[in-house]
Amino acid sequence: MSTFSSRAASIWECIEPVQVRPVDLERIGPGIKRLPPCYWEPRMLFFGASDTRVREVTGEFPHTVVSRKSTHPLFVLKTLPGVAQRVCPCSSKDWGARRSIRRGCVLQYTGVVTDRASYLVESCSFNLPLDPAFLGRLEFRGRVPEECLDERMA
């Protein structure tokens, strides 16, 4: 094995978690519009994910792309080691979703009130691409309180 390939392999084996300085989101409140992924938490909601890009990543959602400017919200399902997040798109249409965000929910940190029910399309979940063109369009809306998530029994 060459020195280069073993050195390259060792770089990937030695990845340490990124240290992120804590930020008090409660204090910043409604002024938050853009939030770097290193500060994302489960149940956070973002608007502005390009339908075209979401379709590329999921291969199936949304079912129709009306225009290049159409968007859907993203819901953070969980954070992964390092700076990675598992997200899913949301839809105002119920495609057989197991969970939904209740209409009239007051989102944490921002106080934004949801104007409709949003169904979590978890069957189309994906790891967030760290592409600046994708991330730059996402607008932070707040964090969904646990009591605003409705769940259907299977």
Brief characterization of the structure:
By secondary structure, this protein is an alpha+beta fold. The protein has helices at 3-13, 25-28, 51-58, 132-135, and strands spanning 44-50, 71-80, 84-91, 99-101, 118-120, 126-127, 139-143, 149-151.
Key terms for this structure?
154 residues; alpha+beta; SH3 type barrels; 8-stranded antiparallel sheet; 4 helices; 27% strand; globular; disordered N terminus
Strand-helix topology:
Elements: H1 3-13, H2 25-28, E1 44-50, H3 51-58, E2 71-80, E3 84-91, E4 99-101, E5 118-120, E6 126-127, H4 132-135, E7 139-143, E8 149-151
Antiparallel strand pairs: 1-2, 1-7, 2-3, 3-5, 3-6, 4-5, 4-8
Give your account of this protein's structure:
With about 150 residues, the protein is an alpha+beta fold. It has a single domain (about 20-150), classed as SH3 type barrels (Roll). The protein has helices at about 5-15, 25-30, 50-60, 130-135; strands at about 45-50, 70-80, 85-90, 100, 120, 125, 140-145, 150. It is globular, with a radius of gyration of 17 Å. It starts with a helix and ends with a strand. The relative contact order is 0.21. The model is unreliable at about 1-15 (pLDDT under 50).
How many distinct helices?
A: 4
Q: Give the strand tally.
A: 8
| Largest sheet data | 8 strands, antiparallel
| Count of discrete domains | 1
| Overall pLDDT level | 84
Quaternary class: single chain
Overall spatial form: globular
